[in-house]
Amino acid sequence: MEGLAYFKEMAPTLYNPEVKAWKDSGGRVIGTQCSNIPEEIIHAAGMLPIRLRAPGLPDTSRADSHLHRINCSYTRSVLEYLLRGEYDFMDGVVATNTCDHHLRLVSELEDKGRFTFFHYFQMIHSSTPGAREWFLLELKKLKQHLEEVFEMHISDADVKRSIFVYNRTRRLMAQLNDMRRQDPPPISGTEYMQIALTGMLIPREIFNDRLEALLAEMGKQPSDRGQSPRLLLLGGGCDSPEFVDFIESRGACVTADNMCYGLRHYMTFIDEEADDPLRAITDRYFDRIPCPSIIDGFDHGYSILRQIMKDANIDGVINARLKFCDHWNGYSVLLRGALQRDEDLDVPVLDLEREYNTAGSGQISTRVQAFLEMLNA
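^ thats the sequence. predicted structure below, dont judge the formating
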């Protein structure tokens, strides 16, 4: 499909042609460290939010002198990108303490970055009513800080317009995920990740138009993909289409996910009619599948995830967790136990430990191949 070529071009590069055009027109760019950071507020300020990534990084030699190697390779890679000047085009960063590794990165970003704007969004780690009020308070602080530094006013009307734009994205991505349920699906998991990443890198209005055109193109073209085991991929810090392609090249198809660079970033809508748009945004971030950093969020998240697995007719799950990631390691244990107790699902789990910029290895290849042979048996 011709429309896919655009997303394949945009996904690998943070400072891509769309971002360059945005900057040339006088637009500001704000980096965000986590999918729990409410981008709608940055968008309402007339700025472009971009997820911090470090694609194609060969090593983290500079960052390793500042962050110990027991910190996950995502945080060290982001710091390496900063030290190499790869984020110099950004006007600011919003960072958060998703985990201890991210918290350690926050101080490095603030200390070594030379941004006009730096904001620490203090993350919640539970789903209680008190945590909901905490998130709302942090959201208000972010809005106020943007207004003070850039000398502007973000009105409720501005926020509601951004909610509408972001909800349009979520409707289009929901339509795309519905199409992935087909057997065979019209696009690969690799192509899906390229689309998802592009949405985190370019102006949202452009992304929406491009995605809507692609969906129309997909609806007219029958899939020529063969049938193969259908996998759900999950894990933190996984933003590598090459890694997904590595898995699919072994004879599988990734047709669903629970990743911060995938479905979880785009799922669940915001109430467009709410009188308080900031509270409506807060509710959305609590209603979706929670990150494993939410200590009491597993049961709520599993109820959503199991429905995704049933709707997508999933044959197996791969948990691609980063080395030293305690949250996703613990989540893997909880998920395996929940699936073993679930009488309605018979879905095995493969637990893979990987580094951030490693597409694959001999050991991973052997384990994936053995897992797929088991599914095909």
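Residues 156-180 form the longest helix (25 residues).
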